[in-house]
Write a structure and sequence with these properties.
alpha/beta; six-stranded mixed sheet; five-stranded parallel sheet; 21 helices; 47% helix; 11% strand
Length: 545
């Protein structure tokens, strides 16, 4: 047994998990359940009353958090302690949204001052592009931005820009490229004019395979339109720590924005990685995004566990994964602008907590990161919600919706809300056989047919969900929402005693991919790998045109 599973609170939760009543009964026992199990913070309301949890459950979950020293671990992260032990790094994405007067020392350097300098540099750049002062090589103003990255350097800017579409200034269009498939960048470049296109390349090393390949292809396209190497500086900027490689590429050193080792890719949208966001919505709105995240940081750091929103959500996810064998978690966004969030949270959670050893290298004997998936309401109701309601797997759900729409036409938003709230109710209460049979009482079916159909209409209910509401989707509430999920992810990793901030599985895939690339471009057959890999490599080489 690991240290975690030997904790008294863990063992108490194992026993308790077998005694929790159906949620129908919990609501009957606790008439004020919504008031008791909802909380507000940072412009968000969390209703967690539709969870398989009694007052005793909550007490035991918070006892586990305290016994696991969660509060100390939260403080260690904010203080800049080296909590990423395998890479010997601090974890300080929170410093990216800290106020100017904050002091956070890393190796004797106040990193907040560096962050603020970068934000000021971003502001100057954004102003020059959006006002038209920045000119392309033929003297024309920029109309389109192509953002090239991978992982967090792609998902963060793309999904936040998508979510903040109502706040676009309208002066620029942005196109996001990540996939190394040549079709992706080819399609994005169609219809663009090299004279009015700006490329933002995001790669800490300026050598990430997919990002560099796409950037080189973008440069070839740019030069093929009639530009010269000296013109590259007017159309390419970089977010990178490798100034030498970026300048060798042709990027002006003044147009290289820094990245820091204490920021992981999936936590980097708050840095200069968010430059495409700032170009689209303006620097004032970008700073509002940071302010919303900072407000959630303060809530996470200062609020007692029992009313701490990220802690509550993180502990419930752990509750279902470790004591009810839930293998996945679904995120359902009832707002078109938020349709990309499930994919963003997927990377955030699965890359962080997809681990199988503890911080000291011991194999875990409990489930860690669940599969995160989801989509846009109400589309999912006509697809995978069937599995949520009547499938055999327990799949906890998060429902996210603004109370007010940016596009309040007709009855659209009230119907959207009715679907959102109706789904959470149906998941919670389900439908009994007697209720299904009663619904069929006035039909023309025979008694035996009614009995049969009623069996198929039974839904067990007791399917847990959280509902997250905000008054309206703004840069501030979006910042708070994303930071909420960042900290929720941290809570789980802290309890599981794993490192949520490395990604060696990703590194192995890159390493083996580069080895295969060498074999694909070699003249000789691949003969020293496994028979499947050898055959696939040789088949590709034989059939490549």
């Amino acid at each position: 047994m690991t240290e975690l599973t030997q904790l008294a609170s863990w063992q108490a939760l194992e026993l308790h998990s077998k005694t929790v009543p159906h949620m129908r009964e919990l609501f009957q026992q606790q008439p004020q359940r919504f008031d008791d199990m909802s909380t507000k913070a940072c412009g968000l309301l969390l209703d967690y009353s539709k969870n398989r949890a009694s007052t005793e459950t909550l007490s035991l979950l918070f006892a586990l958090a305290k016994e696991s020293k969660l509060e100390e671990k939260i403080k260690a992260m904010f203080a800049g302690d080296t909590i990423n032990n395998t890479e010997q790094r601090a974890v300080l994405h929170t410093a990216l949204r800290a106020p100017k007067d904050k002091v956070i020392d890393v190796d004797g350097v106040n990193i907040v001052a560096e962050v603020q300098q970068t934000l000021d540099k971003m502001e100057g750049f954004v102003d020059s592009v959006t006002t038209g002062d920045w000119k392309g090589y033929t003297g024309k103003t920029i109309t389109d931005v192509v953002s090239i990255g991978i992982g967090g350097s792609f998902l963060g800017p793309k999904i936040v820009s998508q979510a903040l579409r109502p706040y676009w200034t309208g002066q620029l269009n942005c196109h996001f490229v990540a996939n190394v498939d040549g079709t992706s960048i080819t399609e994005k470049l169609k219809g663009l004019n090299a004279e009015t296109t700006l490329f933002v390349m995001s790669s800490k090393s300026f050598g990430t395979q997919e990002t560099l390949t796409n950037t080189l292809s973008a440069k070839d396209w740019f030069l093929a339109q009639g530009a010269t190497q000296s013109d590259v500086a007017k159309h390419f900027v970089a977010v990178s720590s490798n100034v030498a490689k970026a300048t060798e590429f042709g990027i002006d050193a003044n147009n290289i924005f820094p990245m820091w080792d204490w920021v992981g890719g999936r936590y980097s949208l708050w840095s200069a990685i968010g430059l495409p966001i700032a170009l689209l919505v303006g620097m004032d709105n970008f700073r509002e995004l940071l302010a919303g995240a900072h407000e959630m940081d303060n809530h996470f750091l200062e609020t007692p566990l029992e009313s701490n929103m990220p802690v509550i959500m993180g502990m419930f996810s752990l509750w279902y994964g470790n004591f009810f064998n839930a293998q996945s978690h679904v995120v359902l966004t009832y707002d078109h602008y938020l349709r990309g969030l499930p994919a963003y949270f997927q990377q955030l959670d699965m890359e962080s907590n997809g681990k199988s050893v503890t911080l000291n290298g011991t194999d875990v004997d409990y489930s860690t990161g669940p599969v995160i998936w989801g989509g846009e309401g109400t589309n999912g109701q006509h697809a995978y919600h069937q599995l949520l309601h009547q499938g055999t797997a327990l799949i906890p759900a998060d429902f996210i919706m603004p109370l007010n729409s940016h596009n309040p036409i007709g009855e659209h938003h009230v119907q959207l809300a009715s679907n959102c709230f109706g789904q959470t109710q149906a998941l919670m209460q389900g439908r009994t056989f007697d209720e299904a049979l009663a619904e069929l009482s006035t039909s023309s079916l025979s008694d035996s047919e009614k009995q049969l159909i009623a069996q198929h209409k039974v839904m067990p209910g007791n399917k847990p969900s959280n509902t997250l509401l905000m008054d309206k989707l703004t840069p501030t509430t979006l910042g708070a929402l994303i930071a909420l999920y960042e900290h929720r992810t941290f809570v789980q990793g802290a309890i599981w005693q794993i490192n949520s901030f490395d990604q060696w599985g990703v590194e192995l895939g890159k390493q083996l991919g580069n080895d295969v690339l060498d074999r694909l471009t070699a003249q000789s057959d691949a003969t020293d790998l496994d028979t499947s890999s050898n055959a696939l490599i040789n088949l590709f080489k034989q059939n490549k045109i």
